[in-house]
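S.,

Sequence below, as promised.
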Amino acid sequence: MSDLGDFGDFDADADTDDGAADAADSSPASSDGERAATSSTTDADDGFEPTNVEPSGEDVGIGTICVSQGLRVAEDGDDTTLRAYVTRGNRSSVRIGSYLLAPYPDGETLFCRITGLEYAQQYHADDATEIHARRAMRTDDIDESDYKFVAELEPVAVLYDDDGELKRRMTDRVPKPQTVIRQADDTAEIKTGLKMPDDGVFLGHLSVGGEKVRTAASPPTIDYRLKDDYDAGDPLVFRHTLIAGGTGSGKTHGAKNILRQYLADERTYPMADGREVTPAVVQFDPQDEYAQMHDDNPDLDDEFARRLEREGIAYGGHDDTTAFVPKVGSASYAAGHHRAQQVEFTIPFAMVHDNPWLVAGSGLNDNQYGALVSVLLPRFRKQYGADGTYEEFTTFLDDPALREELDESGRVHEATFDAVRRRVLGFDNVFDQDARPITELVSDFVRPGGLTVVPTYHINDSRATETIVLAVSSLLIDQKLSNDPDYDRIKETPLLLGMDEAHNFLTDADSVQAGKVISKFTEAAKQGRKERLGLFLITQDPQDIHDAVFKQINTTVVLNLGDEDAIKSVNIPSNLESKVPYMEKGQMVVYSPDNSEPVELIGLPKCLTRHGRD
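The prediction came back faster than expected:
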C-alpha cells in the first residue's frame, strides 16, 4: 500500500481529461463547434504572444543615478551615498578609478570617480545551488539579466561655465535621481575636474588601472604637467620633487625624462634683477647613468619623435652636459658609455672651515665636535692660514706639545683630543688631490641651461663618497641662501639640485654630521622658493629620508614599491597606495596637492635621451 493512502492511484492527467470532458458535455453553453474551436486553438498555440520590452530610441551614456540605497552628498565623504546602475552593454567597459560625468538640469556637471563595483540580485532568489552551478558550468555565456550592476561613485568636483571658461568648485549639490551618467572623454573636462594645468613640465599620461585614459581629441591621450610659472604661485620645481621606486621600476628612466624637460631651451625663470634665465641642473649620480643624457637615444624613431613634438615634449641628447669627476686617491673613472665632456676636481680642505662637520665623521659626540670647531680648527687656521691643507692639519694634530698644552689649560681634555684626532684621520684620499679645486670651477660647474653630473660609481670608499657629495651640495646651498655670496654665478642662476640614492645622505641618524646635513637641507627646502633652488630627490627607500626634509616636498612621484614601510612613508591616498605594489614598469602615482588631484600616470615607453649600457 502506498504511503499516500487514497491518493496513491491518483492520475492527474486522466482525472483532468475526464473532468473536462464531463463538464463540456453537461454545459448548456457548449456545442460541438465551440469544443472543436477550443481544441484547435489549444493544439495550435500553447504559449503566450511575445511582448517587446526593449525601450525605443538609442542609449546615451552608460547608466543612471539610482536611489534604491540612498542618494546623498555630504561634506564628510564617509556620509556620501552616490551610486549608479550600469546597463548590460556597458558593464565590461567600466573600471574602478574611471571618471564619469553626471549633468545637472541647469547646465552644471558633477565630475566623479568610480570607487567600487558590485553585482546585486535583481530578484529574491538563491543562486548558490547545485542546479545553478551545473547549468553555468555547461554553458559558455553568462546571463546578466538576473543581476544588477552598480557602481559606487565619489564626487570630485562640480564643473561650471564662467563666461566661456570651464571651472571647478567643491561638490555642493546632489544630482537628480535617474540622471544619465557618461564616461568623461573630453580633455578639458577631465583636466578641469582633476585640477590639472594645461601647461608646464611633462611627467606622463593620465591612466586608470594601467591603461591610458582615451578621449575623442587628437592626440587621444591626456598629458599631465607640473605648473611651471608664477601665474598661480611659485613653480613647483622650486617646491621640490621626490621620485620613489624600487629596483626595476623605471625611476631612473622617468627621472631622466623629467630632467630633460627642465633643460629645454625655452625653459626660463625670472630672477630678482628682471632677467629670464634657464636653470642649471646639478645631478649627483652614484650609478653613473645621468651623463648619458648628453647622447641621443638610438631607439627613438622618427614617428615617436613626431608624437613628442606634437605634445611639446623636449627630447634628444643635451649637448651642454659635463661630467665633473671627483678625484679620489688612485680611483679611475671609465666613461665608455657616454660622450659627455669630463672634468676632474678635488675638495680643498679650506672648505672645512665653513663646514667642519665634513671631517666630523659619524662618531663625534657634541663635546668632541665642540672641541674641533671652537679650538682645533681656529688654531690650525691661525697657524697655517685659510688655505692650509689636510696633510698639514693631520701634522698639526700629531704634535704632542699641542695636546699637552690644551689639556693643561683645560680647553680640551686629552681623551677628547685623542678622540677627535682618530675620527678626522682617513680623509687622505678625499681632500687636496691632484686636480683643480671645486671652488675654482664654480663658473663651469653651474651653467645656465647646463647639466652637471657628479658620478661617484668609481669610488669604493662610502665615507669618501658621502664627504664629496655633501661638500659640493653644501657649497651650492650655502651660496644660494647667502645674502653675501662669494660666487655670484650660483646666486644668480636658477638651480635644480638632483640627488640619486638620497636616503644615503639625508637619513635620520644620531650623529653630529647627520644633524648638520639635515639642518642644511631643511633650510634649503624651506627657502628654495624665493632663492630659485629646487631639490630633486630620487630614492628606493623613502622611509629613510628625514621627516624634516620630507615635509618640504610638494610633488611626490611613486613608482612600484614592494616594501610596506616604504609605501606608507610616501603619504599618498589609501586608494592609490594599494595599487603601488602591483604597478608595472613606468606606471606611477603623482601626489602634488598644489598641482592636481592625486592621479595615476604612465610614463613614456622610451627614454628621451640615451639610457642603459650595451
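Confidence is low (pLDDT under 50) at residues 1-8, 15-31, 33-44.

Coffee later?
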